[in-house]
Amino acid sequence: MKRLLLLILLPLTGCAVETSGVVRLSEGTYMVTRQGSGPWVATEALKTLGVREANAACAPKKARVLNVNERHSGALGGWPEAEVIFRCD
What is the Cβ-side half-sphere exposure of residue 14, based on CA atoms within 13 angstroms? Predict the structure, then answer.
């Protein structure tokens, strides 16, 4: 029974995308989306990782965070997410 459960759940672990990478929204405006690997992941940690990724993308310049959206995992599923929208100034 445990093996069957493992075989069913193992493919689902690869469904969550950890990060979108830096995505250009418009001229000079970018977005990074971080997604937790399970409902136990704190959105605050995802937000911190997203801001770090934004800072790394703007290494020679300063990253200016414009907006951060957080979505907690729902009772019926869904992984927690943090979306960081930023500009490089």
Answer: 4
Question: Residue 35 is inside which H or E element, if any?
Answer: strand 29-35
Residues ≥6 apart with Cβ < 8 Å to 28: 87, 88
**Mean pLDDT score, 28-55:** 87
Domain ranges of the chain: 16-88
Give strand pairing partners of 2: none
**Long-range contact set of residues 62-68: C-beta below 8 Å, sequence gap at least 24:** 62/88, 62/89, 63/87, 63/88, 63/89, 64/88, 64/89, 66/29
Q: Which residues contact 33 (CB under 8 A, 6 or more apart)?
A: 19, 20, 23, 50, 81, 82, 83, 84
Gyration radius from the chain CA atoms: 16
The phi, psi pair for 67, rounded to 5°, reads -160, 140
Which whole number is the average pLDDT over 49-77? Answer: 80
CA distance 63 to 11: 37
